Protein 1
Amino acid sequence: MGRPKQFDPDAAVEHAMNVFWRKGYAATTPQDLVDAIGIGKGSLYNTFGSKHALFELALRRYRDSQAVALIEMFEEPGPVKVRLRRTLRLLAEMDLADPDRRGCMAVNTAAELAGTDQVATELVQHMFARTEDAFCALIEEGQRSEEIAPERDPAAWGSLLLNTVVGLRLMARVAETPDRLARVIDATVDSL
Amino acid sequence: MGRPKQFDPDAAVEHAMNVFWRKGYAATTPQDLVDAIGIGKGSLYNTFGSKHALFELALRRYRDSQAVALIEMFEEPGPVKVRLRRTLRLLAEMDLADPDRRGCMAVNTAAELAGTDQVATELVQHMFARTEDAFCALIEEGQRSEEIAPERDPAAWGSLLLNTVVGLRLMARVAETPDRLARVIDATVDSL
DNA sequence: CGCATTTTGTACTTACAAGTCAAAAATTGG
DNA sequence: CCAATTTTTGACTTGTAAGTACAAAATGCG
């Protein structure tokens, strides 16, 4: 009962995510948020409680959407190295195509809030761990299909590939041309 | 003539750099700065003009100190791959030893201000380009001494190593244990 | 010394960040 | 339709960010 909400909280989180993603946490004001969502300040605080609580929801939303995106990219058919190269290229392409060049929200959050925001730090750590595990599983799959040499340590290469992606997504924020990222991707996959 | 300054502007920039490095640009207040430097607000604005102008000086100071540090690490004797591994390990060790886990100020600045702050963006781009060039030169040196296979593209590996360092320094902000970084370094150098 | 010049400390200003609150509005169950 | 409940609107509050203003203090110079 009671008056129903005039807006979709789910869509509101989505909008908030995009603002936080573009401006970062500290530089985002409640005014930015209500403008982007299209509601009044009362509704915002009535629904979400605080800027920080909304940020946490936005970061979780980002995690969920990215987790799906990465897994989908890996699931297409083909040899492991082909899929890996295609995934990394697509990621770089998407980052560079973003007119705001926001890069990766998890990476940005790590750079801004690691150490000062417990919740955000743990969310980022989990996202990184998931990505690392996905890479590790991909390496193992490549070894089962005898496409990747068995002496490659899957755990080490999972860490390496996570590290590479984190680097790429930060570089995408300042890279002037796409070729530097492409060279990194090719050199990395070629040495696997 | 006129009254002489009661403080060392150079030391003030150093203190400001440390505050900006730890908290980021947006989260740093003028009060934080005057507290860290130990001067009054009047002196701060009389000397530096604005928070942003002081940030620019701090970022330049960071660039200068880091440029020296990296070159010094490379200049020690020994085979190229040994020096490379030692340098990367030392970098990771230093990042993890920092009680505040501030990582790299250039990386943090890229994540926070790329796209919105022209001056900061260009400074970061230059820092990255310098690092990339240093790695590229190191690869070429290794090829001249026949330690590194001539088919390795020095430019591509320069980009790759820059990307790896950027990734490592961001990972250092959220890494729970040092072994993940160590594995990345070893796997990278081993595949060279 | 007296004067021009520069720095310093502190009070002040303006604007806005983050959040609160009360009253009006919209809903459903009885 | 009434009562209870919840949302919305928008004004209001509190604190602080960023910077300004100005008088007092400290210097070198003639």
Note: Chain A touches chain B at residues 23-24, 26-27, 100-101, 103, 107-108, 110-112, 114-116, 121, 124-125, 128, 153, 155-157, 159-160, 162-168, 170-171, 173-174, 176, 180, 183-184, 186-188, 191-192 (CB under 8 Å).
Protein 2
Amino acid sequence: MAAPSARSRRRADAERSIARIVSAARTLLSSDPNATTDDIAQAAGVGRMTLYGHFRTRADLVGAALTDALRTGEETLSSIDLTGDAGDAMTRLLASSWALVAESAALLAAAEGVLPEGRVRDMHAEPARRMAELIRRGQEQGAFRTDLPTTWLVSLVQYILHGAAAEVRAGRLPSDEAAHVVTRSVQSVLTG
Amino acid sequence: MAAPSARSRRRADAERSIARIVSAARTLLSSDPNATTDDIAQAAGVGRMTLYGHFRTRADLVGAALTDALRTGEETLSSIDLTGDAGDAMTRLLASSWALVAESAALLAAAEGVLPEGRVRDMHAEPARRMAELIRRGQEQGAFRTDLPTTWLVSLVQYILHGAAAEVRAGRLPSDEAAHVVTRSVQSVLTG
DNA sequence: ACTAACTCGTACGTTCATGTACGAGCTTTT
DNA sequence: AAAAGCTCGTACATGAACGTACGAGTTAGT
């Protein structure tokens, strides 16, 4: 989507505007999934019309913001060492995943409400694949259970992550305990 | 809310209309959380104006529908035997809870979007209390873990239920496996 | 410098569901 | 059977974003 050379007909100032808009969208939508295009343009220090010059619809913009969040997320996740003991690897993966999920939960909600059915999930193909792979490896090692569908286990881990984020947001779970709670919960669910 | 004698100034036909409207709302909102007042009135076989005669706002109506769903849910849940082995009791409680959650997931989403922040959770005080109590009893029996906050365990069970409902809706989990999958997942999460 | 691209204000048009107003007929109730 | 309560159609007002149109001014690229 943001291939730097593919559309290099864009002028430098346009490039800058787009970057500011996407960044503002990520920030705003991550705290209020209903932020309007106007809010976002303002936060980006840009006129609403400029925004519409680059993103035809609000959905476009939300999509771009989510893409950007996933891209930076991938940078973190792809550098994690997933070899060795699967349980330990899972702990490492969860620590980073937790931070990312907690940060972008509202953005995700915004996308879910605006993008076509299933699109959000599709965009998560890469992180989902990574998680599935690790679970499968753990199963082969005998470290993780095999009596429940792997698909379900992958989804379940996501629900736990998002659930914990919601609890923190609601003030029912201290944020400094969250990572620990998530890790222990996931471990029990995976080991049976 | 529906005290039969409290507002007995209502005529019988009005009572009938209200019942049909609430019932239609439950049905429709349980498959489409965005159903309009018009849709609901039509499904109830009633004019939109009649609906507005009884429910001032859409939020009122959604609230009434959820209240009704919770009321019937309570009838089922309150009759469950929660004595004896906590694990077994949990299995029984989950079986019924699963059916209720799966049925009204979309209604819940509708309410979440329309009712004031936290209202939906407050309305679940009774079922939440019941679940919390059982978990606490299991902890005293030594059957359930005590290394995670009880509050979190209660929430987590809810997230698992709702997650499973979402998976079924999306076609990623066969509905005849769901109850079993939920039970096993909750058991592992509670026993550590 | 000259052109094409970009910015951005003001103003307008659109859409869609919500909720209100009015009023002519039907039911209950007593 | 009379009064009070309900039903419900048509029509309208409201509000909130979204998205478009126009056009004058500014900035970047070559």
Note: Residues 1-7 of chain B have pLDDT under 50 and may be disordered.
Protein 3
Amino acid sequence: MTAYDPGAHPSVFVTVDLAIFTIRDGALSLLMVERGEEPFRGCLALPGGFVEPEEDIEQAAWRELAEETGVERFSGHLEQLRSYGAPRRDPRHRIVSVAHVAFAPNLPEPHAGSDAATALWWTVDEVAALPSSSVAFDHATIIADALERVRSKIEYTTLATQFVPEPFTLAELRRVYAAVWGEAPDLGNFRRKVLGIEGFVVATEESGAAASGGGPRPTLYRRGWATAVQPPMLRPRPAS
Amino acid sequence: MTAYDPGAHPSVFVTVDLAIFTIRDGALSLLMVERGEEPFRGCLALPGGFVEPEEDIEQAAWRELAEETGVERFSGHLEQLRSYGAPRRDPRHRIVSVAHVAFAPNLPEPHAGSDAATALWWTVDEVAALPSSSVAFDHATIIADALERVRSKIEYTTLATQFVPEPFTLAELRRVYAAVWGEAPDLGNFRRKVLGIEGFVVATEESGAAASGGGPRPTLYRRGWATAVQPPMLRPRPAS
DNA sequence: GCAAAAGTGTTCTATGTACACCCATGT
DNA sequence: ACATGGGTGTACATAGAACACTTTTGC
């Protein structure tokens, strides 16, 4: 098979699916939509849609991200995860889905705008507890892969800062790691690690508000120019 | 856009492309085919082909791997890399390519069987030195991404063993790292690292042949059951 | 004997781990 | 005053870096 001669080969539909993560009330959460039509009516699915004719896959993902979240100036991070293309993953047509992962700070509650009226934030624990019959298509697999991507990616990149709105305190950033990993890294070591990496965060002159029960005014930081964390931030005991 | 309603959406062709790496004469090498037809006639391209109607993407990749290498019992490793889908990456049709990476031990010289008659091994240095006009489509980008995947993957997995035929000596395994990274890890530290990870390699009772100039008979090993290397094997000074 | 390569040991240093502790502030 | 949480210090353990060195064999 010398490549790229379509011949009698069938064409398929290509979609993008999005696993959009954010942190709400200290819990890692995922945007999901309730399907209003068959197949899988009433099931939860990842937001997504078709790639348009003149559109790059990445463009399509950004467009869907804006449509589904209702945010036009999205400040977070978006990257491709991988593609899923089992022949009968959609019972109607052959559809290859290019899944993406997005890291978002404080997105608004999904509104009734566009057609994402049924979009809602679910914590990853809630999603994991769902019966497999209530998750559409192979999206449970995609979610599991996306979760692992997020958990590992904040180990060796600075992308954790994409989960907090600027400016932020180190305690807030640490709570990001706690939410994503399920366990908080050691306080002192975390501070040394983050501040020891040139350009991970940059301090501002301001100080934040003290906590409700009192305490010092924490220093506020902004995202720095660094992208890699090396050596990586290690998750607490990944069970040896 | 509520997902998965094709409506008037156009369908596209989906292919798999393969970056098949092996080590030949101590150099990391890549299988490429010379295109015999337009577009990009005479240019080098990654082997690949269309995904068949009833075929999973991964199945298609395995099938193409067998066809292009002429090996039916492939002993190495194959994984998805990512998808490429710019609208005009192929001038004739809209084609989304799901690229894969394969790690192979000692594959035979590509034969004239099937239609891979023009397939040849190129060292990655040779490929990097090619003018961009002689590499078809966006395959130079795919190759760069695939190379980085291989280089990083042998840091934190045991996949380096997939590049050597069993049984192998630790010196041979070390030469894999040297070939992929361009620099050899320290001899003593390398041995301690590999042998210190339970199940990375398992010793056999046999001893290999001494080197041409003489020397002790090295112990022979087989692949173990471990898949992760943690903490990872670090590449020598990645330029701070 | 000598060269070549396998295999071992040793010291130094960087980094992660696990804490204890101090300090500033709101209630 | 005291609880709360930001911020710092320190002793220990682990593991990588950079060597030197010994051993086994073919020529």
Note: Chain A touches chain B through 51 residues (CB under 8 Å).
Protein 4
Amino acid sequence: MPSPIPPLDPTLTELPRATGLSAMLAGRLAASIRAGEFQPGDRLPTEKQLVERYAVSRAVVREAIARLKTDGFVETRQGAGAFVALKPGLANFRIAEPGLLDAADLAHVFELRGVVEVGMAELAAERRSAADLAALNAAFARMEQALQSDENGAAADDSFHAAVATAAHNPYLAQFAAFLAQHFSATRALTWQPAARRSGGTAAAQAEHRALLDAITRGDAQAAGAAARRHIAQAAGRYRAADCKPKG
Amino acid sequence: MPSPIPPLDPTLTELPRATGLSAMLAGRLAASIRAGEFQPGDRLPTEKQLVERYAVSRAVVREAIARLKTDGFVETRQGAGAFVALKPGLANFRIAEPGLLDAADLAHVFELRGVVEVGMAELAAERRSAADLAALNAAFARMEQALQSDENGAAADDSFHAAVATAAHNPYLAQFAAFLAQHFSATRALTWQPAARRSGGTAAAQAEHRALLDAITRGDAQAAGAAARRHIAQAAGRYRAADCKPKG
DNA sequence: TTGCGGGATTTGTCAGACAAGCTGACAAAT
DNA sequence: ATTTGTCAGCTTGTCTGACAAATCCCGCAA
């Protein structure tokens, strides 16, 4: 008889992982830049000054600076120094950790996701191949079965949205959608929780999935976009409802 | 197993823009991960092994690993080693340097930009304030003046698109649009070059700007989205035409 | 004023060392 | 036989010192 205790969920075991002095220093410097303490083009303190100021070794300082460099906040020139980038943070697009966003920011990110999903649905309707449709139908069928048998269809839900991304035939669009979706895994899990089953939320989401699938199958870009827009809006509504529930 | 990565020789450095040994090493390791030579969850070679294989110091190796860490490709655990992230490269969204994209990739990025710009235009039409409209009209007037007097209106063009982003009242959307637009500064400059003036391309772009401005002023989201879509499509067309021109 | 050293400064790289934390194996205890 | 304690070896994190390469700044000369 194996242990009656199920294995720990790896995603729940890594909370306090603010590893390292260099990460802390990088965070403080980035905060200083964001706060406007250093203007674009300004020179940062030298490594020696930072070593003395924060009482860490030069290795730590260099690692922190390197992190800011890859984040696009600073640029360094050998012999000259480290300078705040002209367009800080525009070298790559990054969003704060899922748990660190307040409600307003989350709404904005959700809206960005909606824009991308709508565009993706329209393109998917125009470009879907036979193989794309097969994948979409398979994922939909798995969600349908999960809905009937009270199983958790979150994985099938993910597969469905991934299939839409594939059908749009644009790897950058798909990668960005996956990047954004990452921040809303809790939302999708919510759709398949018992509370949502009882209130009809799960069935409503599935109806939205069906509308999207039908529009993509017909090749109706406008309808697909509208269906995606409705799906995202409803998901936002369900998320807000669940979020406010503890208050009464 | 033979080394899948050829040794690094600083004297044969291929890309002078990747300043530094650590950047080169980081690029090679990232390429290996993308190529699937290391699967998600796999352990990377230890720092000592990398030091011996590439004949660089441990500082270089550590800086390269640190870069991959902030890029979301690897995670390190003290005492255990460095591991390929479960979802490599999904910690942030990044696009290759403007000069390194081939035509197909560029088209995909352009399409992504179109999706975002359309959504942004729709939201701007719904949310624009009086101040937003004033900024839009000011930028449009500057473009109009540049068009009449044969000046370069690229800066005003940037201001106009930035004003649309502001009017959408979503900082994440605006930041992402700016991030993408970065890769197409050449396209916007193209619109205001003498060749475009003579062929009427500049005037056509201005007409598209006017349609977008009118729709946003009226608060007509659908028309604003359509105008933005047309503007991006035309810009793509102008860009392709200019790109193929040297061939004949 | 302009051009040109040349020393001082700063980042990039190297080397060695110790501390902190993990892994696996072996011995001891139940 | 299973569990627990211990330990040795390995790996990453941090510290220290040094040198090379690139840049900056200031004084000097034409």
Note: The CA atoms of residues 132 and 167 of chain B lie 5 Å apart.
